[in-house]
Amino acid sequence: MWQNLYAGESISQVIPTEPGTSYSICFYYAQQPFSQDSKDYTGAFSVRVYADGELYHTSAITTNAYAWQYECSILMVTSTSCTLTFEGMGTGWTYGAIDGLCMQVDHTSGAQEALRDAALFAPNPAVDHVQVLDTRAVARATLTNAAGQSMPAELNGNRISLSGVEPGIYTVQCWFAYGGAPHTQRVVVVREQ
Q1: pTM of the model
Q2: Options 2.60.120.260, 3.40.47.10, 3.20.20.140, 3.40.50.740; which CATH number does 3-105 get?
Q3: Residues 6+ apart with CB under 8 A from 179
């Protein structure tokens, strides 16, 4: 059974987790426009996902009425529990629904999987920086290591500095100056021999 949400409404649940583990969080969502009391709830709809109060994922915006969209993201946790919050958002008066919420251990944390979707950042593996392959200006970025520890990334335009970053697999997430969903991808950091 799905849960309807106006923009700004949310649902939350505390979930037991294993520190240092990556989880995939997946759900379906749909815009469900209607009119009531001289108000048209027909604005675009999307979902923000918060982990322990911190925004970590925003779904794509949909205006395709009643058509379920599928969204998945990866979350690395550092504690024995995590509070997940799903918040409806959109433009103007908006109304939508979410369904099929699922959280499971992500088993794709190896280096080969990290390299599989190398379209957002280059080079990958990276030595001293990664370039964000997008024409929009990057506003901020974070690096999260395999233990789930996040740190702000140093930016130079659309280049993310990796100086001082230990070798390993990181989840890189960057937000753009004019909003929209952040880019998220794993990047392998290596050091030249």
Answers
A1: 0.57
A2: 2.60.120.260
A3: none
